[in-house]
Write a structure and sequence with these properties.
GO terms for molecular function: 2-oxoglutarate-dependent dioxygenase activity; iron ion binding. Pfam families: PhyH. Keywords: Dioxygenase, Oxidoreductase. It comes from Actinacidiphila yanglinensis. The radius of gyration is 17 Å and the shape is globular. The strands form 4 sheets. It has a 6-stranded antiparallel beta sheet with strand order 1-10-5-12-2-14. A 4-stranded antiparallel beta sheet has the order 3-11-6-9, with no helix packed on it. It contains 4 helices and 14 strands. The chain has one domain: Jelly Rolls (Sandwich). Helix content is 18%, strand content 24%. By secondary structure, the chain is an alpha+beta fold.
């Protein structure tokens, strides 16, 4: 454990293999397809956190003990969800995510948070896997600037030059998890291949980190483990087969 945390402190990321079992990953892939049918007005890269508060499967997935155990390694035993997004890049037309640092965007005080990136599909350089610059989290938070010269997920990029030769590709299989620091410089290229590239970002905070956004409770703020801490949280939705994605463990909300 100490070696893992030391490497994370130095490099800003870690990779965990075969975290989530194939059956649950198949359900997750089906959930992405269900969301796209349900929200045809949204690009598949933009299946974001406001959809989560009334989605029992999404909450079942992000509250899986295997994921929470990884999060606990980095943020401690009292855990809440801050946000979660599917970024699903369709074949041939999936948009890039330009270089950025997550901490430049988030209303959190202090900025104690960790991202788990769960691979739904095989993620490779050919279909636009995550790329990150090891050690870049040890610098400050740079400004962002608008970039609409190419269609991209954020519409912005970091306002400093990035040494792309130092970047490493996060090559993942379904069920693998990549974990990264909020300050690390990262992004991903467009998907110009014939294979979709989908991943689920999950942003876990210790319950001592305050969500400072005006909207309270925050749309995707859910208490997941340990003491509730300083935030208010969304109520856990009850599964309704008439309007929710059906999944194998659908049932009552947790106590």
């Amino acid at each position: 454990m100490t070696d893992l945390l030391d490497r994370f402190e130095h490099e800003g990321y870690a990779v965990f293999r075969e975290v989530v079992d194939p059956d649950l990953m198949r359900e997750t892939a089906g959930h992405v397809e269900w969301l796209q049918r349900r929200h045809p007005d949204l690009r598949p890269e933009q299946l974001g956190h406001t959809l989560l508060r009334d989605d029992p499967f999404w909450l079942r997935l992000i509250s899986d003990d295997r994921l929470l155990d990884i999060a606990e390694t980095f943020v401690g035993p009292d855990i809440a969800l801050f946000a979660s997004h599917y970024i699903s890049k369709p074949p041939y037309s999936g948009q890039p995510v330009l270089w950025h640092q997550d901490a430049a965007f988030w209303p959190l005080e202090p900025m104690r948070v960790v991202t788990l990136w769960l691979a739904v599909d095989h993620s490779t350089p050919e279909n636009g896997c995550v790329r990150l610059v090891p050690g870049s989290h040890r610098g400050g938070i740079a400004a962002m600037r608008e970039n609409t010269a190419v269609d991209n997920v954020l519409g912005e990029e970091i306002a400093v030059d990035v040494d792309e030769s130092a970047a490493v590709d996060m090559v993942l299989a379904p069920g693998d998890v990549e974990v990264h620091h909020p300050n690390i410089v990262h992004g991903s290229n467009a998907n110009t291949s014939a294979r979709r590239r989908c991943g689920l970002t999950i942003r876990y905070i210790p319950t001592s980190t305050r969500i400072t956004a005006d909207e309270q409770p925050y749309p995707s703020a859910f208490h997941l483990r340990g003491e509730p801490g300083v935030n208010t949280y969304q109520p856990w939705p009850e599964f309704d087969p008439a309007r929710h994605y059906a999944f194998s463990s659908a049932g009552p909300s947790p106590a």
